[in-house]
Amino acid sequence: MPDMPFDLHALQAFVAVCEGGSMIEAARKLGVTQSAISQLIKSLETQSGMVLLDREFRPSRPTAAGRLLMELAQDLLEHAQRVNERLIDASRSEVAQIRLGGVDSFSATVGPILVQAIAKGARQISLWSGLTPILSEQLQRRELDLAVCTESTVNDLRIEQRLLFSECFVAVIPRSVAERHADAGHDYQAALQSLPLLRYTRRSVIGQQIERYLRHIKLDAPRRLEFDATDPMLNLVAWGMGYAVTTPLCLWQSRHCLPDVVLVPLPPSQLGRRNFFLLSREGEWNSLAEEISALTRQALQDKISPAIRKSLPGLPKDAFSWK
C-alpha cells in the first residue's frame, strides 16, 4: 500500500500559516512552537514533492501548488474532524450502531423486548436471525457485534461467551388426540407412541440436541417428516399430523398454535436442556453485553415465562433457568 501523501497535522499547520500570514501566528493558533510549524511544513513539502511556500517573501506566500492545496485542504480537514467527532461519540455511548444476531426463537420472542429497551441509546440497530453456526461465523467475520447462540461452538479465544439461560425440552401433541387419551385416563405418554414424530432437521443445532436427548431417554421413532423451522412443524402438530419435541421459546415463537396443542413433560436430564450463550469479542461491547444479559433474564422472568405458563399450564417449574 503506498504511503499517504499528506499528514493531517502538517496539513493543518500549512493552512494555519496561510490563514495567519506567518509561522509565528500559526504556532500561536495551534499551541505549538514556531520550530514545530516549520518542521511540519518541510515534511509536507517532502511528502508531496512540491514547494508549497515561497520563502523569498516575508511573510511567506503559498506557491501555485500551495494555493491549490489550500483550496482543497479545507474540505479534507473538516471531514477528518467530523470522523473524529463520530468516533468520540461512538466510544462514549458504545452503542452508536448495534448489529445483534440471534437464533430464530430468541429473535422472535426476546428480540423485540431487547430492541425496545436499547433503542434509545443507539442510532441504528440491526437484529438478524439465523442458525447458530452461521451466526458464530458472522461474529468472527465482524459482520455482527454480538450473537445469541444455542451451543458453544466458537474456539476463538478472542470471543467471550456468557451463559444467558437454559430451557427444557418438552413434547406437544394435538389437542384432539390429548382429549381422546384424557377420556382413557390422561395417559399422554401413550399418545406419543401412537403418533409419528415431527423432527427438526439434523443440520440445525436444536435438531442435533434433541436427537441426543431422544437417544438418552430411549425414545425411538422413524425419520419421516423433518423441518428447519418451528412454524410449519407446530402447525402440523396442531392439525393432528403428529407430535413434536421442542422448547418453550419455540412454542412461544409459534404461539398461534398453542390453543390446538397440549404439552407433555419429558423425563428431566442434563441432555434435556438447551443453553443460550451471548457471544461478543473480548474487550468490546462489554457494557452492552451485560445489559443484554440482564434484560434477557428480566424479560423471561417477568413477561415471557408467565405468558407461556398461562397458555400451557403443564410447563415444568424449571422450564427456564438462569443460574
UniProtKB/TrEMBL annotation:
Pfam families: HTH_1, LysR_substrate. Residues 6-63 form the HTH lysR-type domain. The keyword tRNA processing does not apply. Gene3D superfamilies: 3.40.190.290, Winged helix-like DNA-binding domain superfamily/Winged helix DNA-binding domain. GO terms for molecular function: DNA-binding transcription factor activity; transcription cis-regulatory region binding. Keywords: DNA-binding, Transcription, Transcription regulation. Belongs to the LysR transcriptional regulatory family. PANTHER family: HTH-TYPE TRANSCRIPTIONAL REGULATOR, HTH-TYPE TRANSCRIPTIONAL REGULATOR GLTR. This is LysR family transcriptional regulator. It comes from Herbaspirillum frisingense GSF30.
